[in-house]
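Hi everyone, sorry if this is the wrong subforum. Our group has a chain we'd like a structural model of before ordering constructs, and none of us has done structure prediction before. Sequence below.
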Amino acid sequence: MLALTENAADVIRQLTDAPVADAVRISTAGGSVDGHGPSLRIETVPGPTANDALVEAAGARVYLEPGAMRVLDDKVLDADVEGDQVRFAVFEQPDEDTPA
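Answer:
Right subforum, don't worry. Here is the predicted structure as tokens:
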């Protein structure tokens, strides 16, 4: 299942700290620029749509549409804020067998 970094959870809580936004939703949006899988769209939403999966961490809520859930199953979502720009990044989850 998708994991969230502390930074991502903080950013998502800030983005959804409004009466009209319950969570962020990640969905697939066609092919990626580099041709390696689908591109992803992240948007604030008031609630899930049919078949969305819910990921919750540190008070942050993320809905994943089925295609995004398959793509992000073993990933970590991170976020960074520069000025008024939010940047999300997706990384592989660390292998539990790999020493830290």
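For your construct planning: The CA atoms of residues 15 and 91 lie 21 Å apart. The chain is about 15% helix and 45% strand.
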